[in-house]
Fold each of these.
Amino acid sequence: MSFDRVRRPGAIATATGCAVLLLGLAAWTATGQEGHEHHAPQAAASAPAAPTPPAAPTAQAGHRHDDHRMGSEFRIVRVFEPPQGFRGNLAVDRQSGRLWMMSFGPPANTRGPSVLYEADLETGRVLRSAQLPFEGQFGPPTFVDGALHQVIAHESKLYRISVDPETFGRIVGSVDLPTLDRIAHDGEVPLRFPFIGFRGMTATAEGKLLAHAPDLGELVEIDPATGRLERRVQTLRAVEGIAAARGERGQLFVLASSDPVKASFEYHVRRFMWRASHGTVPSVRHGKDAVYWVLLDGHSGEILTSLRQLDPRTHAASLALVDHRSVEGSRFGRFTFLTTGDEGVFTIEWTPGMRS
Amino acid sequence: MRDKTSTRLGLMLALAAAVAFAGIVQAQQATDPNPRPGQPGHYNHEEWQGDYPSATAGGDFDVVRTLPLPEGFLGNVAADPETGRIWLVSFGPPTAPGPSTVYEIDPRNGDVLRRAELPLKGDLSSPVYLDGHLYQGVFHESKMHKIVVDDAERFGEIVATVDLPKLADLNLVDEAHPMPFIEFGGVGVTPDGNLVIHADDVGEFITLDPDDGSIVARTRTLKALGGIFAAHRGEGDYLIVGNSDPRGGYCALSYPPALSRTPEQRDISWAVMDGASGEVLASVRRQNSRAYASGVSLLRYEQANGAPYGKFAFLATGEEGLLEIEWTPARDAY
């Protein structure tokens, strides 16, 4: 099994701490405690969409630091092995409990073509599989309207893929996605490629796709039938996987994973241009890898709470929500989700801020 | 006396044999494209063991004049060494605010002689002039466009587009790359009329047939070069001059140190490489460079007394506009 992330030679060696500031995550690194949580003010959940770039939690009005006494619970429930050599993303249909795994295509996947697997949610046993023609690295598939939807960012395409047993893995439709030259953005930093580099993706209760665009630092709601961008909300740039859940009072919780060092490196690489003057190169940060688990308000993009894990067993990778339920004493409830790490596919339970 | 003569003769023969052997090895390596690690016939680059570069080690390197660029221009330059004509191609949106545009400018003063909008998007590779056309790569679409520039009536018309190979076509064994396309900035013309591109991420000169985009040859070389041009030495032999910004050298090899990472701003390295082997022959590092490590285009190439690689006159871009630079690399100028 190979679960290593795609890296350019020397990439992580040049990854930076200073760019964490750019990503609005400096406050996290300042705490220096494993499992440390931050909580946004109560008002954040109902705040209007922020038109400005995301701010660090400490910069938000009324933000306070909480500590372990806030009672966050985070535990690994189980780990299973994916198919041999699998490198890719996960998707779950919460209603039926079906799990799909989509492997990257070449050259991100050196072992062969992109493959869609359906697997048992608890054991990982492969139930069926099909080859797909996708190339390179891409975000996770998302189950909406009876089919998987797969964005291939560098093609600016959204593919609809059948998961019916008889036609499993067949591409049954595709729509074009808008490109960066067709949508409004701040234009502060030149973007090298015309396509929107969607990364995390999840389904909303209304049957829409909610995607994260690191280049824009936005959560973007996409109509899966037309590919039209229907709503855009500014949030953190440094987000990998996302999974959406409805709160009891109609809140749109967006669970996210984040590796700010990796994200800051990619942020610079994506923008580095030989043919122009540049800012400073990211400095090297020596230290342990960390993964952040973040709960975002899907309406405002604000951070509601976060948890930092040092030396994590999981990557900041795609998330697939299996369950979300209310828990007494918790503002946000308990999230049960799948993600990946070197050991395989992890099932994790996180109950952020039990006593907050 | 006879013993001394015999000894000297023996030493000379041994030395000659060693030199000959080294020459054979070098010649073999110079013509060997050096397949990638894991592929048959691959050999490791020998690590540079010489001195680190000094400010004067690279020979004469001077900006001899500047020309203005169109207002807000962000893009690349191409020139025809035979006629001295100069063209510019600006990036498309979202990289640059307006549409991509091809300009022909007056080589005497930079005045725009003609212009035409192009339907190109994003960051673009350097254009290169060949047989009356500019060849313009759009690497993130794996396309090469052929654009008319010799016919004033049809100036800027795209008359052909060919698909380019992708990373999967390079059989990179166990190298994983997130994007399927070959990213290349620098482009040159080989003596036999093919295009040579520099693939940044994989560190190769890839020679392409301009008519169909097929791969003609591959040569391993440095990664993370900005722009390149090819200079023909006769009998099919050619040199490639390239530049590198260490801040972009996240994937650059540590060989040679002249092109390795440093924290200084605008600390640009220039290298002369053998077109057939990809090996670095000479390089120079310019601190506080007036030129970007970006697209370059050859204006003149001539032999010069005592200069093993001749004298290059070429165009580059910088804060001041279009720069004409002359460089006469010294031997082993690392």
Amino acid sequence: MAQIEHAYNELEESIENDKITYYFVSNGDSDIIKAIQYQYIQELIGKPVFNLGFGDYDIENDKINDLSESNNGDPRRVFNTVLNSIPNFFLKVPNSMTLVTGSDSKKEYSNKCKEDCKKRCEDNICKNAHRRITIYRNYVNNNFASLSVDYEFFGGVIQDGNTLLENYIVGKDYKSVSFYKK
Amino acid sequence: MNTKEKKSEDLVKVPKHGLLSLVASKLKNRILFPEKVEEAKKFLKNAKISAA
């Protein structure tokens, strides 16, 4: 995957035993420190699986928030920066697999959202949920042919209570996207 | 009449690279998204993968 233009290029990389973290500053309407962390989870098909986490760092309160919507005026640039960290990560841990899920996909998110949401969601289905994984899925769906040259993709579904990572089908509604470098 | 002089906090300008180094050093060894990591562990427990 070639580096995408219109991204933040000044990244601080921190490599530790079981994680690699990237920090950058989003210079939108205000300056916000962003963190991307690849954290080791477990082995699968002989590959170490790393979860991709992403959120804002509040330096004053020393807190990370992966649910905030900073509305800083630069969402595309921020997303491209996250995407650009992926090939960099695979350079450091070439045999690994990356797992992406959405922090707004858990039930607690929908429950919290209801508290002050103005949308009229029917049948208890939160319209704000699953937006993050949808962004990643859309990116894969729109660029599947070119991305598949270098990466093998899997979509996560729940089957009989367990997770199945199946060969990625473009357009299918997945709970997760995972991939490794071919 | 006594007036109190209000002193504003001193501000220091830190270059972006220095700031990010500082943050990286402060957050070293920390799992930044512990909830997501726990969810990922649950999600992958007993996970199967279809043959590529």
